[in-house]
Amino acid sequence: MKYRALTTLITAAMLGGAAHAQKTQLEFWTISLAPLFNDEMNRLVAQFEKENPTVELKWVDVPATAMEQKLLASVAAGRPPAAVNLSSDMTVKLVQQGAIEQLDLSAAQKKLYFASPLNTFTYDGKVMGVPWYWSPKVVAYNTEIFRKAGLDPANPPRTIQTLIAAAKQIKDKTGMYGFMPNINGINMLYMFQEAGLPILDKSGSKAVFNSPEHVKLLQTYVDLYKKGYIPEDTMRRGFTAATELYSAGKLGMLITGPQFILRVQNDNKAIFDQTRVAPYPINIAGNVIHTGLMGFMVPKGVRDKALAQKLALFLTNDVNQLQFSKVTKTTFPSTVKASTDKFFKQGGADAVSQGRLVASTELKRAKDLTLVYPDASKLNKVFKDNVEAAMAGQKSAKQALDDIVKAWNASL
Predict the structure, then answer these.
(1) Residue 253 — left, alpha, or beta (φ > 0 → left; ψ -120 to 50 → alpha)?
(2) Whole-angstrom Cα distance, residue 170 to residue 156?
(3) 128: closest CA among 140, 139, 120, 138?
(4) Nearest CA to 177 among 209, 137, 149?
(5) Residues 138, 272: Cα–Cα separation, whole Å
(6) Neighbours of 77 (CB within 10 A)
(7) How many helices (H) and strands (E) in the chain?
(8) Residue 159 CB neighbours (<10 A)
(9) How many CB atoms are located within 10 Å of the residue 3 CB?
(10) Sign (positive/negative) of CA torsion 301, 305, 308, 313?
(11) Does the pLDDT at position 270 exceed 90?
(12) Which residues does 240 contact at the CB level (< 8 Å), separation at least 6?
C-alpha cells in the first residue's frame, strides 16, 4: 500500500514536472518603462499567463538608445522576443532591414484601432505592427523660475516665438536655461512639418527641405545654440538631458509628453509642486503636433508567429490600453473604445492631471509625422550629422540642408 502511494506521488511529480517543462517560454520587450510601471507590466504578465496556462511570459525593459541594436542582435542569433515595443521611427528602419514579421489581422481586429495609428505601422499595404500608446506634447513649466525671470506663471507662452522669447528672458535674468528644444537626431524633420514646411515633393521621390523657409527655421536654433541659450548637450542627449535638468530645478520649461511629468514627480517632489502645464504651441501654418506613436511588433524569426501575434493583440487590447493609461495617467489609447472613457476628461490641480487634460484637447491635432523613405537608417544619419555640423558652426544652415538634400536625392 505504501509502495503504491509512493509510486502515485512520484508519477504525479513527474507529470507535473513534464507539464511545467512543456510550457512555452515567451518574452516581450518594452522601452524605458521600468521602474515606474513595473506593477502594470507584471499585471499583464500574470493575466496573459492566466489566459494561456501553457505559456510562461517574461517582461524585459530596454533603454530606448539600446533597443534597435539589441533587437537586431536577437534576430540574428535566432532568439528574438515574441513581441517588442518600438516607436514609429524605429519601426521604419527595422522593417527595411527585414527584422519585423508581417501581421495577419482580421477586419474586426483592425477596427479595434483608430485608422491613423494603425496606418502608421502599415507599409505597402502590409500591417507590420499594432499601435499602443501616444500622447501629444505639452509644455511643463516651473512657476518659481518664471517669477524669478519676471514672467507671469498665469500666462505661459502660446506660440513658438513667445516660447523662445521667454526662454531667452529666463537665461538672461536667472542664468538658468529656459528650454531645451527637441532637435537632436532627426527631430528637425518633425519641426519642419509642424511649421507647415514639406519634406518631400508630392511624388515622395524628391527631398525639398532646403528652401529659404527651412533654412530660416534651422538658423533660429543655430543662433540660440551659438549664443548660449540652449544647453551644450542638446544635440547629444536631447530629451533625456532636458528631463534631468528640469527635475533638478535648472530648466524653466520642459517640452514633453505628459507621461514624463510623472518622472519629475518621482525624481523631485518640490519641483513637481512648482510645475504647471500649458499646451504645446501650435504653428498655425502646420496646425499639427508631431505625436510619436508606440506600438508592438513581432520580430522576424519567432518560433510561433500566431502566439506572438496573440500576445501583441493582448497587450494592445481595449482593456489593457485603458488600464495602462490610468496607470501612466497621461498617455492615450490607440483603440476606439478605450478612448471614450470619461477618465480622459478629468482635470485636477496637480501637474499630471493638468497634463492629461491639456493633451486630451490636443489629440485632434496629433499626428505621427514619421515618413517612410528608402534607406532610412543611412539617410537619417546624413540628416543628423549635417544638422549637428550646422549647430556646431562647421557649416552654414543653408549648406547643411543643401548637402542633406543632395545626398537624399541621390538615394530616393
Answers:
(1) beta
(2) 13
(3) 120
(4) 149
(5) 15
(6) 9
(7) 18, 14
(8) 12
(9) 7
(10) positive
(11) yes
(12) none
| Tens digit of each residue's pLDDT (9 = 90 or more) over 349-361 | 889 888 888 888 8
Q: Residue 134's beta-bridge partner residues?
A: 332
The three cell numbers locating residue 104: 495577419
Question: What is the C-alpha to C-alpha distance for residues 80 and 72, in angstroms, rounded to an integer?
Answer: 8
Residue 400 has which C-alpha cell? 547643411
What does residue 35 show for φ and ψ, rounded to 5 degrees? Answer: -95, 0
* Percent of the chain with pLDDT strictly greater than 90: 73
Cα(106)–Cα(115) distance, integer angstroms:
14
Is the pLDDT reported for residue 21 higher than 80?
no
If one counts every other C-beta atom within 10 angstroms of the C-beta of residue 87, the result is 18
Q: What is the β-pairing status of strands 275-279 and 253-256? A: unpaired
Own/partner pairs, 46-50, CB within 8 angstroms, 24+ separation: 47/320, 48/311, 48/314
Single-letter amino acid, residue 9: L
The C-alpha cell at 272 is 513637481
Residue type, 77: A
Question: Would the pLDDT of 10 be above 60?
Answer: no
Give me the amino acid identity at 275.
T
Identify the residue whose cell numbers are 484637447: 361
What one-letter code names the amino acid at 146?
F
DSSP H or E stretch at residue 290: strand 289-290
This prediction's pTM: 0.81
In which element (H, E) is residue 359 found? helix 351-362
Ordered DSSP codes for 107-158: HHHHHTB-HHHHHHTEETTEE--EE-EE---EEEEEHHHHHHTT--TTS---
pLDDT at 18: 47
Cβ–Cβ < 8 Å for 389, 217: no
